[in-house]
Design the sequence.
């Protein structure tokens, strides 16, 4: 395991790769401000917060910097985050898979729809309430019952994220297949496997497979960036590079 490479050396390694596989985890998601409404309305505030982040926000700047670094090389991104911010950095939707879903989508039992208009209506109604009622479960529940409904079938909507009951896996399966096809084309290419802020939440999605991919492709390197858990498997030897750093800070520094 190689450690303590200079940022410039790491940037050179990314630049000199032929293909780049990027994995993104929760450390790359912005910390939420203190939210104000009742618990049931928190996902709406969260979704609104992500979509209203300005271009100058550190996370957005870090994604843009990362996109520049990847340049014209073939890439694919797997993200565990549901904040959709990776697209703000210029990554193409076609080359990103988000198996944990998205806060910009909502779902009933069978349909996946855009969240924006439903979210705006609900937050508008809640914010019209007198201040003391905005944190009141009953008042919020009435508004959700009325407005969080599927525009196609009229059944209740919830956010399309893995932590919600009945999460529709179908939302990402096409992209997952595309990702697997892309992966099968990386063998024997000089692949940079860049893992940013992925801890042990869903290790079977990024952390473990990324080690396996690196292990089997002798020309690849795994660069694992995490503020607390940057260690790489010893089997990777010199091809496992551990960077103990916040992934946002890392991207802004390379
Ligand atoms: Zn529906």
Sequence:
């Amino acid at each position: 395991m190689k450690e303590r490479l200079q940022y410039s050396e790491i940037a050179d390694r990314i630049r000199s790769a032929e293909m780049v596989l990027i994995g993104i985890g929760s450390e790359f998601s912005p910390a939420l401000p203190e939210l104000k409404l009742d618990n049931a309305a928190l996902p709406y505030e969260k979704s609104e917060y992500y979509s209203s982040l300005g271009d100058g926000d550190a996370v957005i700047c870090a994604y843009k910097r990362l996109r520049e670094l990847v340049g014209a090389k073939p890439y694919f991104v797997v993200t565990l985050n549901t904040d959709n911010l990776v697209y703000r950095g210029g990554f193409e939707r076609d080359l990103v898979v988000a198996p944990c879903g998205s806060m910009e989508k909502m779902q009933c039992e069978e349909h996946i729809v855009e969240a924006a208009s439903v979210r705006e209506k609900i937050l508008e109604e809640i914010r019209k309430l007198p201040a003391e009622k905005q944190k009141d479960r009953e008042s919020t529940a009435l508004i959700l019952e009325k407005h969080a409904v599927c525009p196609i079938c009229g059944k209740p909507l919830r956010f399309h994220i893995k932590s919600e009951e009945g999460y529709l896996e179908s939302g990402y399966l096409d992209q997952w297949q595309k990702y697997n096809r892309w992966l099968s084309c990386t063998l024997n290419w000089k692949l940079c496997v860049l893992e940013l802020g992925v801890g042990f939440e869903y290790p079977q999605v990024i952390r473990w497979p990324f080690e396996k991919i690196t292990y089997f492709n002798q020309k690849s390197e795994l660069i694992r960036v995490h503020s607390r858990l940057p260690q790489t498997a010893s089997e990777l030897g010199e091809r496992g590079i551990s960077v103990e750093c916040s992934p946002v800070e890392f991207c802004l520094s390379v």
